[in-house]
Design brief:
- The complex is a heterodimer of chains A (about 240) and B (about 300).
- Chain A is of the alpha/beta class.
- Chain A has a single domain, classed as Rossmann fold.
- Chain A is built from 10 helices and 10 strands.
- In chain A, α7 links the parallel β7 and β8.
- The termini of chain A are far apart.
- With about 300 residues, chain B is mainly alpha-helical.
- Chain B has 12 helices and 4 strands; from the N terminus they run ααααβαββααααβααα.
- In chain B, β2 and β3 form a beta hairpin.
- In chain B, α1 packs across α7 and α3 packs across α9.
- Chain B is globular and about 60 Å long.
- The relative contact order of chain B is 0.20.
- The C terminus of chain B is likely disordered.
- The chains are: A alpha/beta (about 240), B mainly alpha (about 300).
- The interface between A and B is medium-sized, with 26 and 19 residues.
Amino acid sequence: MLQIKDLSVKYDNIQVLHGISMDIQDGELVALIGANGAGKTTALTTISGVKRSFGGEIVYNGKNITKASTDEIVRLGVVQVPEGRQIFSKMTIEENLILGAYTESDSARQKANMERGFEMFPILRERKKQLAGTLSGGEQQMLAIARALMSNPKLLLLDEPSMGLSPLMTEQVFDAIVTLNESGTTILLVEQNAFDALEISGRAYVMENGVITREGKSSDLMEDPAIKRAYLGGD
Amino acid sequence: MSFNYILGQLINGIKLGSIYAIIAIGYSMVYGILRLINFAHGDLLTVGVYTMLVLMGFSGLPIWLVILAGCIVSIMVGMTMERLVYRPLRGSGEETTLISSLAVSVFLQNLISMIFTPQKKAFHLPDFLTVNHSLGPVSLSTINILTMISIVVILIALTLLLKKTKIGMAMRACSDNLAASQLMGIKINNVVVVAFVIGSGLAALTGVMLAGEYKTIEPLMGFVPGLKAFCAAVLGGIGSLNGAVLGGFIIGIAEVLFAGLMPSDITPYRDAFIFFLLIVVLLVKPNGILGSSEGGRS
């Protein structure tokens, strides 16, 4: 579904990604783990067309999207839930969701997608007329995911959904991610919280200083002594 | 000092306030989306008025057509400055765009001086617009009445645009969180262009109101009203539509009352008084009267 080949990205003169390659198949839940500053977020913003690469290419369903604009990429079904949630805090929850459907002009489908979001996170329905900034961190994350679902994503890019959330809230959000994946949405999950990410994903990539250092089945990586030491806090 | 005198001054304040308010809306819209303080905004007013002056030279053109053409030229200049200056500089920091907007402002002022000479020129609107109507103790010209009506119409129209239409929602979203808006598939450039179109058109419209009031125009006429409108936008809470309008009225009324009620040897300091007022308000409410306390975006 998504092939990333030798992708290189820099900020001014500092190179952040050094030729990374990834391959995501239809229906997979793939995790991208690594320490803070490894370049995970840069990888996602480059896939979304916000940041430009200077080398390599991104191919989505056979189409080269390396130079495509963000709105084209969203229309193709590659949708990002950004780090730090980035909800529209001065707008209501309902308005946030409507904006999520900016590329979806079919109003029946828009309604159905909103209904799906409300069923997944009932708290959002209860508070739909409330300003999004008044929600708790976990609720904002739910809103950010529900908002992304409004544009019919085929591939969902999740950037640190557990950031700043309590363990209980993290579990709830991760359950929702698994449910989404089971209902057919392909997911690329970027996480610092490596343990939880490996637990719910099928495959994973490990990124260090802008390079993919390991890849494989998540269950294998979880047993790997080096990974355990570096990311899972065990030995 | 009679009641009627004060009432008359108050009406004058509302008149001037409407003008500041309409300019402030444009300032505030562009700032809300791009965090760009466009000092050239006031000069778009001048561009519009000079276009109208040229067209009024061709007798026979109806005044509404002249005004419309002035607005269109002002819009085109606004779009051009966005495309040629602000778009390439986007993301380069607020101080860069701020200084550039001053440069654009000086450029426009000089360009107009070069074409039309720096001298004041007479600007005569048709009589039916300038004729005075006495309403009880106060007397207002047709253009004054139209100015006050138009602020209400503009406010309602813009509120509907921002609340009910797709592009309006996108404008609010961009002003709330530009990065997230892009990820929703919103074309930021289109939203910015719409903000410039609305702002430039409104600026040209206020040009007619100002020129109708003073009966003369000059190449620098837009700059100071632009600065005061910027104060109005900051005072009311920059980025907020209602804040811009509220700030416009406060500054207009304060300015006229200061000039009308203070002893005549201190009235020349009315502009100083306005900026002093701005400082006092910002000391108490740093984000302006209706500004949100969340500060900037991350």
